[in-house]
Amino acid sequence: MRIAVSSDMDEPVARLLLAELERRGHEVVPYGALREGDDPRWAVCSEAAAREVAAGTAEQAVVCCWTGTGASIAANKVRGVRAALCTDAYTADGARRWNDANVLALGLRLTSGPLLTEILDAWFAAEGGQDAEDRANVAHVARIER
User: Which one of 45, 64, 65, 86 is the catalytic residue?
Assistant: First the structure.
């Protein structure tokens, strides 16, 4: 899977994220502080990664900033993106199942290596649910964007 990854800071957990995604066999496209010469501002690099998903050039994205909040806000401004700020595996699973999230937002401050692994395990194990109510909610969100 091709995954766009952005971070506004070159922190150890951001580098671990890149390595872990590559270890899992994904093609990683870095943005922000993770790519030399790129604009590291959270709004700019999160938008760039999210646009890859919206354009279909990446299946998913992971956007990071110190708290994860700014990265998720910026990504969610891109039409067709459903970014979820996940602080644990249960939230990552629910974001995929119930919200059909296609962008994972992470906070660099509180995400440890073991927690990152748990979040990624849950994120990649889950898929968008087929429950009628969940699908109706995702469809409603798409209508809000229009």
Answer: 65
Residue indicated by tokens 């709004």: 43
DSSP 3-22: EEEEESS--HHHHHHHHHHH
Interacting residues of 94 by C-beta distance below 8 A, sequence separation 6+: none
Q: How far apart are CA 49 and CA 59, in angstroms?
A: 11
Within 10 angstroms of residue 2's Cβ, the number of other Cβ atoms is 15
Over the chain (146 residues), the average pLDDT of each successive run of 10 is: 98 98 98 98 98 98 98 98 98 97 98 98 93 92 91
Predicted structure pTM score: 0.96
| Amino acid at position 131, single letter | D
What whole-number distance in Å separates Cα of residue 111 and Cα of residue 117? 10
Helix (H, G, I), strand (E, B) or coil at 67: coil
Length of the chain: 146
Structure tokens at 38: 């790129």
| Residue 65 designated active-site | yes
| Angstrom distance (rounded) from CA 13 to CA 107 | 9
Q: What type of residue sits at position 5?
A: V
